[in-house]
Amino acid sequence: MITIQTDFWFRVFLFALFLFLYLISSSYPEKSKQFPHLIAIFSLIIIAISFLIDFIKKGKFEKQNNELKSLEKRNRFYKAWGIILISITLGFFGGFILTAFFLFFGFSIFFGRKRNLLKNVIVSLTITIIIFFIFQWIFGTPLLKGFIW
């Protein structure tokens, strides 16, 4: 029996949502330029690639998912939410940079390889700086300011 995972339906929903965004974004104000179109097209491409990868590797995910025990799944769930809540709290004090850095770093430490600590720090810091630069200066989007600065 073929079971369709919840993430499949979530991606179908996201695909429909971004398709809708693309269709209505032509009526957005002139000041927004092509930004809504670019977000919608990029998201549609990423979701389509995700569907394609799932189609090519069908069944592999189910085998991996069945191997995880329920206790291990629960621990991963609590770790992920712990990282998210701590990064949100850090965002209140330190703004976007601390939030994004701790989010990337926390997930890489708890769900990646712990022996690559320096590599995880460098990758987390690099991704955070790139995202900050793109959104703050190129797109002109104001990011979360922290209580400290």
What would you note in describing this structure?
It is a single chain. With 149 residues, this protein is mostly helical. Helix 1 (6-24) runs antiparallel to helix 2. The radius of gyration is 19 Å and the shape is globular. The model has no long low-confidence stretch (mean pLDDT 80). The chain contains 5 helices and no strands.
Number of distinct helices: 5
Straight-line N-to-C gap: 55 Å
Question: What is the average per-residue confidence, as pLDDT, rounded to a whole number?
Answer: 80
Taking all Cα atoms into account, the compactness measure Rg is 19 Å
Beta-strand percent range: under 5%
- Which regions are unreliable across 5 or more consecutive residues at pLDDT < 50? none
Percent helix range: over 70%
Shape: globular
Biggest sheet layout:
none
Order of helical and strand elements:
HHHHH
Query: How many runs of DSSP E, i.e. beta strands?
Result: 0
Secondary-structure content class: mainly alpha
